[in-house]
Amino acid sequence: MRFSTTPKKNGKWVELVLIPGFATPAWALQGVQTGTFSVIYGPGKGENMSLPLPWDQTYLDRWFTFLKAVSERYQNRPSFLKIAADGPTSVTAEMSLPNSPADLCAWVKAGYTSELLIGAWKQVFANYAQIFPRQYFSLALYPPLPIASATRCEKGNLINDDHAESARATAAIIGLGVDNYPGKFVLQENGMTAAKNNTDPTGAYEDVKSYGGKVVIGYQLVTSAIQHPSDMGDADGATALQKSLQRGVDANAQFLEVWEPDVLSPGAQNVLASIAAPWRPRPSPCPRVKRQPPHLHPPSLRLQRHLPASRRQEGSSLLPHTIPPFSLLHSPIPRLTGL
Q1: Where are any strands of DSSP class E within 193-232?
Q2: CA–CA dist 177, 156 (Å, integer)
Q3: Rounded CA gap, 59 and 53, in Å?
Q4: pLDDT (tens digit per residue) in 165-191
Q5: Which residue segment(s) compose the domain that 270 sits in?
């Protein structure tokens, strides 16, 4: 892994997304509790693979050790502004876990509880805050499993699943970040679209919106509006892009993640320019004015290099890359210097 010099030259910033879960190498799983679960979206969708149990302490400790090595090499890079928090995850940095009927029964058998998951995320946030003192760390929402104390399996079917318990766990995990790390924690949702029949049924859009003004918030488009306009709210790609990005603007997001085909498309340039224009930072008439806190700073747009491997639209990879020099998009979220 290496950093490009392009972000620094062009005033852009870098986000790192490092994915453990299913991608954990075999040597790192030695002595770790694992289970066999299905890949629920993205590359390898439908395959059964070995997944470390999210609360396994050996797994988490090895993950944190790896992150310390990453930090030693990269934390002082000026362009490195944000890292995705993960660990108790599976296929991406979203906080998703396999949730097919068979998977849910496997989780019950493995001893899953919301408290175990919440405890794992508590460790993750504490370690990210310590290991990356100059960076923000982000949580990409996805509903925890609907498993409560009365949930059980009978003949391969989940009995007494509890979606209220899933919502409680979501609120508890978000609260760990918002309450304990308000100056470093970023909350985002990776499925934004203007399509009425494709909006997120989990309410993550509104959840993220509700934390505006408390922490940095942002959204990732669910797929390329130019390539899949019907999934994004209109038959015309540019119009679908505009409608989808406007949802982020309406939520007062401070960054929006846009897929590369939309950034490169000639037909999308007017849309991107119109959305980005009000967000561009203006030079301050007084250079000694105290920097605003992160949640009050101007928002930004950033590029996603690949098509998404999302739960709604299959693609190649969900790994974000830096904005290339041909992009006209800025990233004025303040840098955490002096920590």
Answers
A1: 216-221
A2: 35
A3: 8
A4: 999 999 999 999 999 999 999 999 999
A5: 6-304
